[in-house]
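Handout, section B. The chain below has 255 residues.
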Amino acid sequence: MDILPTTSPTPQLNGSQYRSSAVSNRVPVLFRRLTRFHQMDFELAAWQLTYLCISPKRVYRNVYFHKQTKNTWARDDPAILYLITACLCVSAVAWSVVYSFSFGRALELAFVMILRDFFLTGSVVATIIWFFANRVLLSPPSHSTPEDAKVEWAYAFDVHTNAFFPFYLTLYLAQLFVLPIILKNNWVCLFISNTLYLAGFAQYIYGIYLGLNTLPFLVRTELLLAPLLPLFTGYIISLLGFNVAKNVLAVYFGS
């Protein structure tokens, strides 16, 4: 007669534990590890930010390696989020000095740049491209298509994060140094101002395209470049006399 059980008992989860576990699994690993500083690789994150400006395709080559080793397309190290947050804090301080903001106003500006411009806007953009990619860009099912051929929301947010940094360098940093020029009332300064904004948004759109074009199970990713057409059309029209920087900064900083 058997005295010891042949199988180990399966722990039973009560309702609250099950719901807590389900909610935790829905949160991307990237956000679940925000407080695990000892596991973060800031050197790799700094390398990625550098090559996102020099050779972004080189960064996306590592996506294949990450998929093979960790079975996910999305990064699981939030170090890059902290580096971008730090960059936005520096920009907030610099812009606050230019506009002579108080400490409280500078702190508010930092929160706006980080929470609204980066995280909130990024979440909206990630949701849109995640939905669009899974509904429109997925290749037809076949025997060669992997079972997990689906764009993860976390990867879509990664794509936004990667595309945001060159955008940040152009409009949050470079614009600061040419501010005395782009706010002058002549056509040459208007041309520089509007070209700067064209470059910033074109970089972001191209970054989104590049990130999704990396995935082997997506087709027709060139559709992601479609926003470049209205962007360039608006740029041409704006050269008739609309200074984008002057109007955007007036709304953004309330001046």
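Note. The chain has eleven helices and no strands. Compare this with the example in section A.
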